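Input chain follows. Return structure tokens only.
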Amino acid sequence: MKALFIGGTGTISLAITEQLAQQGCELYVLNRGSKNNALPAGVKSIEADINDEQKVASLIADMSFDVVADFIAFKPEHLERDYRLFHNKTKQFIFISSASAYQKPLSDYRVNEGTPLANPYWEYSRDKIACEEYLIKQYREHGFPITIVRPSHTYSNRSIPLGVHGAKGSWQVARRMLAGKPVIIHGDGTSLWTMTHNSDYAKGFIGLMGNMHAIGEAVQITSDETVTWNQIYQIIADALGVELKAVHVSSSFLSACSNGYYEGGLLGDKAHSVVFDNSKLKRLVPGFVATTRLDQGMKQTINHILAHPELQTEDPEFDEWCDKVIAALEQAAQLVNEQV
């Protein structure tokens, strides 16, 4: 198989790249080259900014592929560019959408590919929906061989997957735990969630590559394991070897206290219970199963981060914000109690 990945070094794409390299795939990665030192041996690099359409067109002028996958397309104009570049150069074009595109609030916590797409809280998700609609139009009217994949919360060994963290990543939450400080869990922590290790996601994705039954289809790829947010944070605390000191805060209050920063990620995604039905993926990719249990994957992730200080990005602004939110709740409770 000859494939081209646009991006190729992110949380999801790097795991796929690594597994394909082991399988002997003729794989090209098109990006600006800033992170290509992470690519495994044998992967071929095409250095260019995908937004420089004229340059990319010249670089691939004499090339064609069995599969082209764009991991960094977020808006319809990105897909319009991809269509111009690849509509006659690939047997399959894979777009990475998002499970956050499913309707919020959900009418049924059980989610499959037939769940309606609608998210009034998050522009990112609405853009992904518009991207899907554009590609479906090209498939129906011009036979563009698309496959749409919808990942949910996928993680690697480079970042701890969480519900509430700052703009600089999740390490500061782990640092608060290690310091014995309380950490914020959105809602009451009992909503259901699914996290997928990127190595498991890669197995499902590769099974869709070159798969004629996947053409024209949208497919979600997640683990079958469902946990609560309380369990997730307890797993993290256990992996760190510390006591969990949790403070539960409503998602709407967190959004209001952050000038809307958490509106999309919480109200438009993580605040809702979801249980994914992966029967379609398993029908298309017989034998697919996610094998990394969350407590096992989280321990691997945390051990890796603890061993690599360069991944421990501190975020004092977020730390101060947490303290303020927790103090405000405590003061409100004290005030109400005094008035009773």
